[in-house]
Structure formats: structure tokens, C-alpha cells
Specification:
Layout (H helix, E strand, L loop, with lengths): L2 H6 L1 E6 L8 H10 L5 E6 L7 H6 L2 E5 H4 L3 H13 L4 E4 L9 H4 L4 E3 L3 H12 L16
Parallel strand pairs: 1-2, 1-3, 3-4, 4-5
Length: 143
Amino acid sequence: MSDENQKNKVYNLLISKGNDSYNEYEFYKERINSQSDFLWNEYNNQDNELNDELFEKIDVIVLLYGLYHQNKEICDELIDKSQEYDIPLLFVRSFGVEYVLEEIVEKADAVVGWNPHCIIDAIVTLVNGEEEWIKPCDIEDES
């Protein structure tokens, strides 16, 4: 995708939503909206019917780790749908949390923290079909 097409691309993101004691859904939207050069449409599992029509237009499914344990059933369904429809799965760790369940990380195509540049970079990389995601951009080397 050329740089000009990439600037004009509107990304269709399906974001996990549910019981959210730490308000991660709104915090995620705040972070991604802080990037004025990134255009996106918001879909979520509460306000949208999870049908074939929706999944056919989704570019990336965003799973917020802070919502996983209280919304395990819907999060697992979104993980299954990402595999069924071959939609990249972006896993956003909880704010300040480094450890996440390995079984979920293994199913994700990319894992990032709350740095908005990292989130956007991961989405663009996943949509552009990069073969393999390199480790999250917000974790420092431990060398």
C-alpha cells in the first residue's frame, strides 16, 4: 500500500467491550483518537450484531486484556471469529501489565501496551499483511 493510500485508509476495528471495571474500552478509544492521522471506524460486540456481514468488513479485532477475565465468553468468541474469518487479532495488554496469559498471546497476531503509536503501528502492520510481527514496540530489550 502506498504512503498516500495508507494515509487515506479507514480501518474497521472490532473492539472487545463488556464488564469493564477499569474503563479500558474508553481509555483505548482515547488513546487511538489521540492519533489525528489515523482514520478508523469503531465496532464492538455490544453495539453491533456479530454476523457475517460485520466480520467481512473488519480489518482487525482488538482484544483488551483487562476485559478478558470478566468477559471470557465473548472474548473467546472474538478469538474464534478472528481465526474463522482470517482477521488479524491485536491483543492490548492492561495498562502497566507485562504478564498476560500465554494461551491468549499465542492466538494473537500482535501484542502491544497502551502506547498509541504502538497500537497504530500494529494495526497498520497487520492490515498490510506483514508476515510476522516483531515483539511489541513498547517493551524494552532486557540485554
